[in-house]
Structure formats: C-alpha cells, structure tokens
Amino acid sequence: MTGSLPTAAAPGHSGGRTVFRGLSAAAVLGLPAALTAQAPQRQLRPEIAVTPVIVHLAAGAQEAATAIVVRNAGAGPGQLRFYLGDYEQDVNGDFRFLPFGQGAHSCGGRLTAFPDGAVVRAGERQQIQVRLAAGAGVCWGMLFVETAPQGRGMLRVVERVGVKIMNAPPGASAGGEVTTVTASRARGDTIKVRALFRNTGEAPLDLRGRIEIRDYGGRILAQSEFGPFGSLPGRDRVMNLDVVARLPRGDYVAVPIIDFGGEYLAGGQGTLRVR
Amino acid sequence: MKRILILVVAWLALSAVAASAQIGTPTAQANLSLTIPTMLDIAASGSWTIPTPTLVSDLDPGSTLTSTSDVTITTKGNVNYKVTVTAPDFTFTPAVVGDTYTKLASTAAVTNGATTVVLNAAGSIITHNRGANSDNIGANVAVSMADHPGDYTTTVTFTIAAQ
Asked: Which of A124, A55, A44 is nearest to A84 (CA)?
C-alpha cells in the first residue's frame, strides 16, 4: 500500500525543540499536500445484508417491537454501528436524511434500537431490537446499519443500509389516488409509463400493483408488476414504470392499478399513441 | 356345519375388503406457508486514488483532480432500491501550524458515468429495480489556489434503502 504523503508540518516535541516531521515537497511549494494519493488495496471487506428493510408498526395505546437481522455476507469482519435517523422522500423517491428527532414526523423520543453496534464476523448474524413506545400519531424514521470507514486517503468509503420504520396507529386512514398517468414509447418495444400517486390518508404506504397496456376495446395486451414504492402521507410519489409490448400502430391506454393497502385499489389511465 | 362356518368366514372377509374400499387410503393434509422478508445487501470494494497536484498550474481556476481508480458498489435486493451518497465537509490537517480552512464537500463529486452527484447534499447515485447489480463509481475534487496546504479527508457514505 502506498500511504498518503507524509503529514505535512505535524509538530512534535523533541528535547524541548519543536520539530516538523515529514514536510512534503508539495507543502514546501505551497501546494495542498496530500490531496491524497492512495493505491488500491486488497483487503477482506464486510458485506452487509439486512432484513427486513421495510417495517410497518402499529403502536398506539400499546407499544410495538420488531427485530432486524444483520448478516455479514462478506469475507472480512465488520465493525458495525446501529443508530436511528429521520428521512424524507421527495416526489421521485430520492431520500433526504436528517438527524434523529429533526424530521417533521420523527419517532424521536419513542423509537429505540439496541444494541448500538457490534463486530460481526464473516458469516455471522446480529439481531437488533427495535421498540416503539406507546403514543399518539403517525411517525417514521430509519434504522441505519453502517460499516466503519474503509480505506485511507482523501476520500474514504462507508457502506450503510437504511431500514424504513413507519408507524401508523390503529385507525389511521390509508388513502390515495392516481392523479396523472402519461405513457410514451421508448426504444424497441418498451413503453415508459409515469404514474403520479397522491397519498391522501394519514398512514405511510407501500405502493404495489401492475401496469396494463390495453387497446380501446379494453383488451389487455401487456402488463407488468411493480413495487413496492414508499409513499408518505400528504406527498406525491412518481413511479416510472416500464412495460414491454410489441404494439402495431394505433391508440392504446396505459392503466396503473395500485394496491396501497387500503380498502380499494387506486387506478388511472393515460393515452398512448404508437405511430 | 363346516360349510356354514366357511361361508361366515368368507362373508366377513368380503365385508372387510368392502369396508376398506369405502374408507380408501388414509390421507393427511398440512398447510405450507412461506414468508420472504424484504432484504437489501451492500458492499464496496476498491478505493479512490486522487492524484497529488505537483505543479502550481494544477491549481489553476477550474482545476479538477480525478480519481485514477473506481470504487465498486455491489448491491442486491428483493425490493426496488436507491443508493444515496452523502459526505460532510473535508477535515483539514494544516501544513502550517495553526492554519484553519474549510474545504466544502461541494468541491467533490462522484459519478457512475451517467449520473454525477455533488457531495454537499444527499443525492441518488444509483437506482435499481430488484436484483443484483454492480456499479463503478468514480470521484473528482475541484482544487484551486485558495485551498490551503495540508491534508484533506472526508468520508463518502453510500446508503442503500428501499424505494
């Protein structure tokens, strides 16, 4: 391994004199020393496998608890850290991570995870106990399972698995609707469908379903299953879906049918013209 | 008498066969249930090698140091997932004692060739449907004469989570 350039001007004391060790040529030249170089190194690394990664709890008057299992599927030991945080998802499903307790719907103060870390050797498992105290209201957060920083040098790498933990107390409503559907033909026989779902209920949802391509007579010509996609209350969620269908010229409709766990299915349709 | 006894035995035997035929072969039923939980898996291999600037002109405005090697992110999942990349600002160890300086994470970016994410805020670098995937991620860091001499490090976190 080639290490980074010597730490420039790291002061030390020797015999009462201040000395500077390893002053690099770059530093002498006034350049940012050790913006750093590091040769690739081969070392046994952990591989984190976590299950489940989507957890729905129903704590209300009663507390709720679950267990998350972490397995090291890699060849090297993993020094892992377990901790809680908050998150938001935008309309495209991209995440924004927040410190625990800072999310608008944080489970902070109620949600705990134990232990807070472990050394998991290759092939071993570790269980994490997650507990949500009784209390009112919908909340959500994320349990992170994180490796120690890997490598040395300017840019180090950490791998992390985020477990979505969502709580909806008994009686929280699950509702939603498909507000927009657009469809277009991409390269080859792929049909690109964009469906926008609006979560109008109180509960965080997992959206599953199928997309159908129909002719104007209602005949299903192709279909594809999708999901789950996370949907937070009061938010819109776009799902970009692909369906493979060899269609002759003509007019068709794309029909997403979404099971969000409520008492009805949400659906919509968008027109598709193949020229 | 002997004939009557034979007839009775024969009748009993036939009755037993008939009863057996009516009952049929004994069977048992059991339910088979299976739960497959949601699963995600991530591993990183390799490391980024950022070349050290050796000439003052390496720090000209608009200069960028590009990694000469990639980090490979291997992911698996039975749900659709995204990998988000985040990093804090660089930790600075000055070459001149007492010097202080903040190099923002936004001066660095990672890319998979199609998508580039600047490291000042969470951004999705990888989006996949369920399955196993491997993505090579390169990195680059913008440098300038304004960067003070010293060592710079930051930690780039790849977070995999269900969509």
From this structure: A55
Would the CB atoms of B39 and A39 count as touching at under 8 Å? no
Q: How many residues does chain A have?
A: 275
At B16 the pLDDT is 53
CB contact under 8 A, A52 and B38: yes
The HSE-up count of residue B71 (CA atoms within 13 Å, CB side) is 30
DSSP B20-50: HHHH-S--------------EEEEEES---P
Q: What is the ipTM of this complex?
A: 0.82
Q: Are B163 and A230 a contacting pair at CB < 8 A?
A: yes
* Residues on chain A touching B44 (C-beta within 8 angstroms): 45, 150, 157, 159
- Chain B residue numbers with beta carbons less than 8 Å from the beta carbon of A54 are 38, 79, 162
What's the pLDDT tens digit per position in A91-150? 999 999 999 999 999 999 999 999 999 999 999 999 999 999 999 899 999 999 999 998
**Is this model's pTM higher than 0.80 or not?**
yes
Tokens encoding A82:
């377990």
